[in-house]
Amino acid sequence: MEAGTAAREGRIARPEILLHGLRPQQRGWLRWLTTTDHKRIGILYLCATFLFFILGGVEALIMRLQLSQPNNTLVSPETYNGLVTMHGTTMVFLFIVPVLAGFGNYMVPLMIGARDMAFPKLNALSFWLVLFGGIAFYTSVFFEPPQAGWTMYPPLSDDAFSAGGGVDAWIFLIHLTGISSILGAINFIATIHNMRTRGMSWGRMPLFIWTILVYSYLLVVALPSIAAGVTMLLTDRHFGTGFFDPSAGGDPLLWQHLFWFFGHPEVYIMILPVFGMISEILPVFARKPIFGYKAIAASTVAIAFLGLLVWAHHMFTTPTPTVVLAFFMLASFTIAVPTGIKIFNWIATLWRGQIVMKTPLYFAAALPALFTIGGISGVILAIFPVDWYLHDTYFVVAHLHFVLFGGSVFGLFGGLYYWYPKITGRLMSEALGKLSFWLMFVGFLMTFLVQHSMGLEGMPRRIYDYDESLGVGTYNLISTIGAFILAVGVLVTVVNALKSYRGGKKAGNDPWQGNTLEWFTSSPPPPNNFDVIPRVRSVEPMKDIRREVAAAAVPAETVAQPVAPRSL
Amino acid sequence: MPRRLLPAAFLAAAIAILIAAPAAFADALTPESGGSQNADDIDTLYKLALYIGLAIFLLVWGTLIWSLVKYRARRGGRAEQIRGNTPLEIGWTVGAASILVVLTVVTFLYLKDIESPPASGPEGLRAAQAQFASVDQPNPPKGGGQVLRIHVNGQQYIWRYDYPSGDGQLFSYQELVVPTDTTVVLDLEASDVIHSWWIPKFGPKADAVPGYVNQTWFKVENEGEYRGQCAELCGSGHADMRAKVVAMSPDDYQSWATQKRDEIQKAGEDLAAQRKQREKDQGN
Fold this sequence. Notes:
heterodimer; A: mainly alpha; Cytochrome C Oxidase, Chain A; B: alpha+beta; Immunoglobulin-like; five-stranded mixed beta sheet; three-stranded mixed beta sheet; 10 strands; 43% helix; elongated
């Protein structure tokens, strides 16, 4: 009203900026502790989750040492079961899911041209919940770590058979990381729906953003199921209920349904954003547009939807009617189609390109190769009569590591090498990167290929020792040696990252000739990300800008910090 | 030059391992079988899926490696700016789907043979010879005829087997004794946590879940010992929860059963006598 009057009187109403709400920036470590900047939170996520990755890796190495020969006595069966549980839980809940939140946190606002996430404080809360969930879980090492496996099947996980507090620590972890993931997911959803820059329609959104969005929706749908499950387990253990106790009218299979209704979408939660990462990396290094953008985006959504309908393929050996098993077999088969579409599109992206052989490309190209093996063994496992043989053997262990390590972790390492220069302003060493890749690739194949054979010979999972007569001694030795080669490979990347932080070559804004908006700003980006956000006209805005810059010979005035394309 | 050779050497090593490992161990890529006909069917079904899988593996790895080698950046090279190809997309979607249709059809063709227990063979245990639990047969075999129904109970960390017997008890722990050429149906239960019963040479495994009765079956052709172990994490003794099946001729089985039943009866009587004696001692 007053503004209208003012306008009529010829004065111009101006927006006011109120400064009294602004707090001075903290200094030193307090700045990290109190930060709500998505980039700093992203870095916190990445550092914390990589520490958990190393912890989980050490647990795996101890298990591999124990299994390196028949009837070994390095660790006790109780310790071994503890290691099985800690390794699985750490890798799933404290590494892969939150590390993707870390990459998402850092990259989503930059890639969609936003200045932060939609809810910065919620974002900080998400990180601290994961960290304290992890700490709460690991304190169980000082009393009694949980020993019922990361799947925590009752009655074994019930108080009658697991009286110690380890299972409770695990429940605490599930709740804390679960709340963190749901809050993080809501934040991603709000950010991606509302904060994309001008011109970035759904069809121009980077594929990594597509996958982070689908990842977020899947988390929101799947997590309540396990949250309910662990709450029921908690009351079964301490408050006299009997949800999973047959003697009290409960049902142990109810847990398996609740767990896997979460647990199988979780598999896609852990892989889809990595699919998104390599869908960014492959076209950049092939110097070609992504092949079949719409097919890849649509297959992401299809995988997520179908992923909600396959959970009971983890339960083929339970007392369940055949018609149910047949349904879950067919549903699991159908997932192979959109996954196959992605793999063919990635290969077609490389086809007739000009492939620049840098470390991110090595890791990104390894993903389709290794994931294909995991996919094939996945289809074999989905044939439920065959699963009656293979279920709970090392064949399954091999399968899940091919998709989670060969898929997720290799892709993640590609993402790390790809975005490290953006995050730190420095390039990682190519020599060390390639050394790390080959060690990891060969070590990985040595570790996990032979595990298929172990399972086919009849070696069940989660056994702390085995008899010589089982005939899997040689396989296990090969696998253990491979695991250590793999570990050295990971270590080389850790050394590379630490060394390059100070000593790496300066990256500049756009070291790879990227396609997406994060390469528009400086490396590392300023606190506000962008001074000027360019208008997006295609799925590859940076390519457009480079073309314009080249055409104009001098930087156009609307372009804030572009760098003319230069050869690598 | 050495720097270029290093990755090549690693690749050669990887390929050598890939090829040498399966070749070195004869049946490293296929399941155990030969114990029971359902195991053989599973083996066949698995091999079919494996061959299809190997073809896809070669296709993917072949085109991927070829693309990476052939289309490396070259001076003056030009990347084709192809954004997609709809017929190609439809092609591989339909292709992948039709492979899965084939797998589905074959699976259902084999399913009946794997799932439904057949009748016992002519050399098997006969009704006249033995005590089939004929009053307690909820699912008789499709082809008619009789099966030997054994009740299995999983406990931390041992298996208990209860056999049908006319009068008196007949049970054993850990070692399951069965007659050859006889269809054996197992009713699986667990009295504490979940276990899983599995003898690799017999094919399917089945979970023993507290509160449920699960079923599986096998029919052994050859006498001998068959070994397996619990396949579901059941606690600290999980790795030591072994299972053993001893298959013997129906006649041997018959005499084993008689002897075992007598032993159990005698042990029971001894126990009762001891108890009576103790009561008498306490009474005095």
